[in-house]
Amino acid sequence: MIKFDFKKLIEDKKKLYPLIAVVLTVVVLIIAVSVAVSGSESGKPDDDKTQNTTQTEKKKSKYSDYGEIADMKLTLTIGKNKEKIDIKKISQWFIPKEEKGKITLKANDDSIKLYVRKLAQKYNTYTDFIKFKTSYSTECDLENKMSGWILDEDYSVKKLKSLILAKKSVSLDLTDNSKASNKWWLRIVSDYSQDKGYGDDYIEVSIDNQHMWVYKDGKTVLESDVITGNPNQDSATPTGAYRVLAKEYKTVLKGQDSYGNDYSTNVDYWIPFVEGIGFHDAVWQSAFGGYTYLSQGSNGCVNLPLDVAASLYDLAFEQMPVFIY
User: Which residues contact 279 (CB under 8 A, 6 or more apart)?
Assistant: First the structure.
């Protein structure tokens, strides 16, 4: 054991000073370590808070130049699908410009056009031909005249541009069959999609067999012999995939025959599927089916017995698919 003679150390000041220095150094080190530990424990939450605040401000500042549209959202409903457009996408549709210290927003037409093009590629259901299975269990490719959706890209670009310039959040259903929503589409058919095809309700006409079938829920509910257009007078009924355009009761059909002669005919039931061509009763025909159409065929319409025309009128609905082959 080392023994210190404090009396002697006090008398010898030269030996006392180094000892005091050592003691003070140890004390200072202890205090420094204590402060560092307590400081790190209490300061950590503040550091995290500062960091989170900085990240939030950074996130906000990314779109700060867009001012009142920073919280803007657009939702486009297409069938069962929703296209949600937030500021991240909307910001690509604007070109911010600084003028006299102020930020002004100009629509970026090219970016909007690109979005609409992708939207069309995703949701268009129109195809040039529809593969149709006939009542004879054969298949044929029919030119698609009026079935499917085609997005009107020019209208859509103008509409989206007007929506974002209005700087308000908007939710639109583009397939609600209203006149407003139909402006987005060049053509539209109820319940038509690539997955579902043409559905289970439709009208079928075989020109070769001069026969018509009406299907509801996939089952035949009406069939009859018919008379179609006269091919020998350049009035053959056009083949293809169509849709019912309208239904009219007690009307007058007017037009010109293949010889240029005007005609005016009263009918009880009129169901057009092409402008000027459709299904109707033809009481002047004495018989239906067979080869009658080659000599007494119509000007393109599908002639029906009166009672059959009445039944078809009740069963048909607008946009109901019509297949003629």
Answer: 203, 269, 270, 271, 273, 301, 302, 304, 309, 312, 316
What is the maximum alpha-carbon separation in the chain? Answer: 149
Q: Strands (DSSP E) along 116-247, which ranges?
A: 129-133, 139-143, 150-151, 170-173, 185-187, 202-206, 211-216, 219-225, 240-243
Q: Which amino acid is at 234?
A: D
Same domain, 254 and 169: no
How many structural domains compose the chain? 2
C-beta of residue 110 within 8 angstroms of C-beta of residue 93: no
pLDDT per position as a tens digit, 181-236? 778 988 776 555 555 578 899 999 999 999 999 999 999 999 999 999 999 999 99
Q: Do both 108 and 167 map to the same domain?
A: yes
Asked if 181 and 232 sit in the same domain, the reply is no
Q: Is residue 91 part of a domain?
A: yes
261 and 235 housed in the same domain: yes
List, for residues 56-97, the tens digit of each pLDDT value.
454 444 665 566 788 899 999 998 899 999 988 998 998 887
CB 117 within 8 A of CB 213: no
> Is 295 contained in some domain?
yes
Is residue 314 within 8 A of residue 249, CB to CB? The reply is no
Q: Distance of alpha carbon 25 from its chain centroid, rounded?
A: 77
In DSSP notation, 40-81 reads HHHHHHHHHHHHHHHHHHHHHHHTGGGGGGTT--EEEEETTE
CB 271 within 8 A of CB 251: no
- Domain enclosing residue 156, as ranges: 68-128+148-187
Quick one: pLDDT at residue 157?
A: 96
59 within some domain:
no
Residues in the chain: 325
Domain harbouring 293, CATH code: 2.40.440.10
